[in-house]
Amino acid sequence: MACSRLPLNLIKPQAFSRSFTATFASPALLAKRPQLFRDPVGSRSLSTMADFNTRPPLVFPAPGKHTATVIFAHGLGDSGHGWASAVENWRRRQRLDEVKFVLPHAPDRPITCNGGYRMAGWFDIKRLDGSVDSLRASEDQEGTVASAAYFTQLMKKEVDAGIPASRIVLGGFSQGGAMALFTGLGGELPLAGVVGLSCWLPVVDKFLQGMPADKNKADTPVFLGHGNQDPVVRAELGLMSAEKLKELGFTVTRKIYPMGHSACVEELDDVEEFLHSRLPPTEK
Questions:
Q1: Which GO terms describe its biological process (predicted)?
Q2: Backbone dihedral region for residue 162 (phi beyond 0: left; psi -120 to 50: alpha; all else: beta)
Q3: N or C, which end of the chain is more exposed by having fewer CB within 10 Å?
């Protein structure tokens, strides 16, 4: 059965340099083109916390009483605006009225596989040729750790505002999904769940080093969605990541959809169901 595409919201290639032949962008109707400026040779690719804080996240307040928060990260070359319509989709049945949605924006950084041109990204990607191994070659550990610190900061801000970690879900698409897995499952906060779409588990060795020894993995279930025709983040890589998480003791639900590196209505409906099950309303 075909997977219904998002109405008026298909995944759209960004205006990358000619050397960049694939896109990590979210299904974006509002996403803007990245600026194509090459950094001087030898410049650092790691963004500071100040870089993150210059662009506050796009926030969708809870329509009702705020008792839960979902933080969802976009893919390479996109912005939080690219997933605004997905939030509207998740809310259309009014089952998540107590949930605030936070859509952060990645800072611009040089991306090696894009000829060193700057674009929005959570970490650098050295090589991208569509193979299973390319995304795991020379991984940007420094950039990944820096972005993880930023996502942890966002989650702790919610906790400080009175939302318990058990009412927070961290998710993302593609590179953003990779960050959700790395941060949400490798950190100390006992989250309600983690969502990863068309993604993989990055920097596995660092992930294992940073995971608390006493982490209760059963309390943070994982939803993974992937297209079986994905030419960018291969479904095989997603499967390898899912199996690794299961091996570590996490409860993983993985669903495959007949699509490429994209998202579809069926997948978003499954995400909504997962969010509703993990963040049920406290008031009837």
A1: fatty acid metabolic process
A2: left
A3: C
The residue among 144, 107, 192 whose CA lies nearest residue 184 is 192
Q: Express each pLDDT in 234-259 by its tens digit.
A: 999 999 999 999 999 999 999 999 99
Neighbouring C-beta atoms of residue 159, cutoff 10 Å: 14
Per-residue pLDDT at 32 exceeds 80:
no
For the beta sheet containing 222-227, the strands, ordered from the edge strand earlier in sequence to the opposite edge, are 58-60, 99-103, 68-73, 168-173, 193-197, 222-227, 252-257
| Domains defined along the chain, listed by start | 49-278 (3.40.50.1820)
**In whole angstroms, what is the distance from residue 27 CA to residue 14 CA?**
11
- Containing H/E element for 100? strand 99-103
Torsion on CA atoms 262, 96, 250, 139, rounded to nearest 10: 40
Q: For residues 147 and 192, what is the distance between their CA atoms, to the nearest angstrom?
A: 20
The CA distance from 46 to 58, in Å, is 23
Give the highest mean pLDDT range of 25-29, 134-138, 186-190, 193-197: 193-197
Cα distances (angstroms) measured from residue 195 to each of 33, 34, 109, 220: 26, 26, 25, 10
Would you name the residues annotated as active-site residues? Answer: 174, 230, 261
d(CA 233, CA 204): 16
CA 131, chain centre distance (Å): 20
